[in-house]
Amino acid sequence: MNQTVCLNMIVKDEAPVIRRCLESVRPLIDSWVVLDTGVDGRHPGCRPGSLPGALHQSTFKGFDASRSEAIELARTEADYVLFIDADDLMEVRAGFRMPELTHDAYQIALHDGPVVH
Q1: CA-to-CA distance for 28 and 104, rounded, in angstroms?
Q2: How many angstroms from the chain centroid is the CA of residue 70?
Q3: How far apart are the first and last CA of the chain?
Q4: Which of 73, 86, 87, 90 is 20 to 30 Å apart from 111, CA to CA?
Q5: What is the pLDDT of residue 38?
Q6: Nearest-5° angle of CA 70, CA 113, CA 45?
Q7: Are 56 and 36 in contact (CB under 8 A)?
Q8: 60 Cβ partners below 8 Å, 6+ apart?
Q9: Which domain holds residue 77?
């Protein structure tokens, strides 16, 4: 049984980096939902190819409320939601195949040099 994954992000005027992030996670996701809480609302070339997704605009209401709003927007898009910051990149090895997802949740370690988040 193939489970689907939706990328979910909160961004604020991050047009310069959002496409790069979306492209880096493309092998891991089936769709994306981004909530932009910034003022410019411009994300030229945001869509990575034909990957389904949605960009929503909203006023920033604090991290917790905005994160909840973003999750609600993504809730019906996939079986799992992947959270990542727009300025982060995922390095996916060539030939990577998503394993069968059978647990309720997963945690991914992000490495920034010697620092692990």
Answers
A1: 17
A2: 10
A3: 30
A4: 73
A5: 82
A6: 40
A7: yes
A8: 12, 37, 66
A9: 5-116
Look up tokens 């092998």; give the residue. 27
Strand 111-112 and strand 53-57: the pairing is: unpaired
22-55 per-position pLDDT tens digit? 888 989 999 999 998 886 655 545 555 567 888 8
Looking up tokens 């996670």 gives 25
Nearest to 37, CA basis, from 83, 7, 70: 70
Query: How far is 80 from 78, CA to CA, in rounded Å?
Result: 5
Number of folded domains in the chain? 1
| Partner residues linked to 48 by β-bridges | none
Q: pTM of the entire structure?
A: 0.82
